[in-house]
Amino acid sequence: MSSRTRPRLLGAVAAALVLALSACGGGGSGGGGDSQSIKLVVAQYTEGTRPYWDKLISAFEAKHPGRNVDLQVIDWGNLQSQVNTMVQTRQLPDVLNINVFADYAEAGLLYRADEVVSKQVLSDFLPSFAENASYDGVQYGLPFVATVNGMYYNKTILKKAGFDQPPATWEEFRAAVKAIKALPGGYVPYALALGAEGGDYEFGTWIRANGGDWRTDGKWTVNGERSVEALEFLKSLTQEGYTQPNPGQTNRADGTWPLFAQGKVGMVYASFGTRAFLDPVDKAGVDYGTAAHPTNHGAEATTHGIQDYLMAFKKDGNQQTVREFLDFFYQADNYSEYLKVEGLLPTTASGSSAMRQDPKVSPIVDMVAKARFDPTSQPVWAELRGTMAADLGTALAPDGDPRATLGKFQQLAERP
Amino acid sequence: MANRTADPGLAQRAAALWQRTVPWRWLAPSTVLIAGVVLFPALYMVWMSFQDISRIGLLRGFAGFDNYVRLFQEDALGQVVGNTLLWLVIVVGLTMLLSLALAQFLTKEFFGRRFVRLALLVPWATSLVMTATVWRFIYEGGNGLLNRLLMDLSLISAPVDWYKDPATAIYSVMAVGIITSMPFTTYVLLSGLQTVPHDVLEAARIDGAGAWAAWRRVTLPILRPSLMIALILNMLHVFNAFTVIWVIMGKTAGNHADTTVTWLYKIAFTAQLDSGEAAALGVVNVVFLLLLILAFVLVLRPHRDPAATGEPPARKDPAAEPGPAVPTVAAPRPQPVGRSRPVLLRAGRGWQRVRPVALPVVGFAVALFFLAPYAAMLLGSLKSDAELFAVPATYLPESWAWSNYADVWSRIPLADYFRVSMIVALVSTVLVVVVGAPAAYMLARFTFKGRAAFLGVILVTQVFPAVALLIGLYQQALFVDGINSYGVIIAINSAFNLAFAVWILHAHFRSIPVEIDEAAMMDGLGRFRIMLRMTLPLAAPGLVTVMIFTFIQVWNEFVIALTLFNDPATGRVPLTVGVQQFIGLYETNYQYLFAAALMAIVPAVLLFALIEKHLVSGLTSGSTK
Fold first, then answer.
1. Which residues from B are below 8 Å from A199, CB to CB?
2. Residue B269 in contact with residue A81, Cβ under 8 Å?
3. Cis ω on the peptide bond leading into residue A166 (within 30° of 0)?
């Protein structure tokens, strides 16, 4: 008889165990509907990110008793997938930090910027950044941090090759890379990064240097003549050995940047003043200069501005707390503290003037004026960017076809 | 099993019914666990594949077969399918072959064997994310360690871009795939080899069978269930080889190393941003795998063969007699004494002389091979940033920054992460054994309708790519209000690891003679006690394998924990998720990442150093009756 009751007992024990297990959790953050409590989801820029927000939140909560901010820090590699999961399961964050906003604005999920920050904060954003945070003429995104990207060059190598100035045109650029390649020491004339992490950033810069752009007069020109010419130019650089091997598979942070820091590279595309890039370069004592990329067809010399956003999601009764929190974050001292922690550039006028005090940073802040942005206010940009980043590098291979590759992207951009 | 009470009518029918449901009652806990956890997300994935889902995840309505149509129109489809099949053939094939050789080697008695076995645990115990990261590191071009080594040995003259060059990329990744699958496969086979009775081998040799014939005729048939399990699980893992490919190749352009799972991730979250199409790919993937499993279960019938032949009585002997502790040493000796050709005899004598040296040397080389990446990790954890990227790579750090190991504890709450991971992994392991053992016992001892089906169906839990199930799992966890709760993450981890446990234990239970059960039953022991007191101890090698496997799987699980169990506010962050803080947008603090990874290996290896010896002695020590 005992043999028969035993299994039932076991089943009961197992069931109880499962129940007990699921019961012992439960608590956690959950909730969310409570207007006193908001969920903040931010991207991980450096390891200083979490400590900064932890500190800011406890200062905020101390100042606004009863308010509560739940923080979630997610690394860039997983951010999009995690946020998509939240959107699809309707567990929206209240405040989100990410590099796109137009899709969320188009879907009607976001508060307008003027609904969630005070007039002072709103008028403090640099105009070009505010415009780049607008969808259909209305500002939804809150400019958060920026990088301005352009060319760093190694003065020592360029001088050895006979150049006192960085090349300003493509002809000069060709002459320079040729001369650098001829030098003993196996230098890489130009370190090119068209890998999936940010290949489209660098390529966009080259398109603009060639007098083209992603969009011209309100139309997509991803496969415009200037774009095709730019990609063919980069392909020829690659095929003739003026870059490091496999630039289509190379990324910046673990590819071209360390090479530059070792003094092996003549010129490279990098973020001006970004700590992650500059610290090793400074430490190694590389003598460097900054410039805009060399241009062709008499194009205007520009730098590439990239900004990330904060945005607030519409949820019942969260507006007050969100507004208080965002205003708190954009207070001059809190905001510049954040920039310092991450080593990134401000998107506000007051932040810029504060940064200009630092003689090391001030020339970079001025580069902001030359900055051109990618069309992030187009909802399709997120997908276009993703696809381009994933495939752009393949066009540099010997059997790559720049025109066909860009044609595919153009099709995607124009898809209704 | 006849009813002694002769109650007529209803009572009898009820009793008969009760009797008939015996197997299902034993299977109930596992069925409940799997159905409760896996069913909904799986259905949700299928449902999603018919939905029009926007780039940010908003549902826009029914899409019919649009997602499938789009999927089959993708340019990269052919290449990705080709890669996947290539991976399936090469990685699975080589993993099986090499593991079999290694397992066979590790059954030999030699100095340092334990060290080699423990060395094998290290790659297994290390989070795959970490292992893949260190491999990418080793594979770098100008600053890569592999290039440095090969150039120092004059094997290559210029650095090779192992993972960046489209020509070599997929093979480089496959090599890592093989190396990371080998430890687990070897352990499965090793525990299978423990059940090979030495006296039968000995008898075969006395009868004049050569080593090869004895191996083929005696060892191989007995090993068959283990081989089948290893093969099936390896094939399924091909489709879950996400981590290795993603960490090494995720940020390089093109699809030249993508298999279906990494491509699925790209479609969903990085390139096309289309969860619907990704779900469609998930469904196609699952259908393909189901067909593959069906082929295995129906055509090859892996779980029927061993018991069908006259094996069980033979296997009873080693269990029944206590046996000497070192039968392996004794076994080869009688071999040359028989009739042997002089050449062979001399070779055999020569081998006898060389053996005490050769085996440890080979063993040491094997251990070194498996430990090398972690040595690179250790040295990397002591280097400075600039040195990590130096061209050419340096072997040893210029200044040994041991302080990294102290710093890492204060940079992140590492101790808390350890505690959380330990709780989740230990409880999940216990749950898997508690729930899986009765099911495996029932499947091994009873024949009933639906038995084969059950074994097949639980394998199905392994065919879903975790990435594709994520949203459904999240939805489900929300429903029971279990986001960030221990209960849910433990239940999920247990459900996904149950299949392996049931299959392994089932194979081991089958190889234990039924006579033992029958004798115990006559002594008045109930079924459950028989399982607990007789069968489980006898199946110790299998049990240990299951425990190691489950613990490590849960300890290393990343994607699901990131989504469902990640709440720093209450300190509920597992280790794999926590150390991601060292990966920023522009900088990765490899030193701390590696330091944390190495320290995370220690508890796992220690734990298994303690129970691993059961793998060796389990069979003989368990059968004292």
1. 253
2. yes
3. no
Joined together, the tokens standing for residue A214 give: 């992603």
Asked whether the beta carbons of residue B484 and residue A23 sit closer than 8 angstroms, the reply is: no
Q: Which of A26, A47, A89 sits opposite B581 (nearest CB)?
A: A47
**CA dihedral over B298, B304, B309, B315, signed as positive or negative:** positive
CA distance B146 to chain A (A): 17
Least confident of A135-144, A170-179, B158-167, B317-326: B317-326
ipTM above 0.85, yes or no: no
CA angle A399, A404, A408 (to 5 degrees): 130
Interchain CB contact of A372 with B (< 8 Å)? no
Helix, strand, coil shares, percent, chain A, to 5: 50, 20, 30
Joined together, the tokens standing for residue A173 give 């650029």
pTM, to two decimals: 0.82
Range with top average pLDDT, B23-32, B171-180, B536-545: B171-180
Quick check: A320 and A251 in contact, CB under 8 A? Answer: no
Q: Map tokens 């796992």 to a residue.
A: B604
Note whether B182 and B95 are within 8 A (CB): yes
**How far is it, in rounded angstroms, from Cα A376 to Cα A201?**
12
d(CA A57, CA A59): 5
A254 and B588: CB-CB below 8 Å? yes
Give the distance from residue A22's alpha carbon to the nearest chain B alpha carbon, in angstroms.
4
Which residue shows structure tokens 């006193």? Answer: A36
Residues 315-344 on B with a CB inside 8 Å of A are none
Assess B252–A contact: CB distance below 8 Å, yes or no. Answer: yes
* Contact indicator for A341, A404 with CB cutoff of 8 Å: no
Task: Kindly calculate the radius of gyration of chain A based on its CA atoms and give it in whole angstroms.
Answer: 25
Radius of gyration of chain B (CA): 26
- Å between B452 CA and nearest CA of chain A: 21
pLDDT at A289: 92
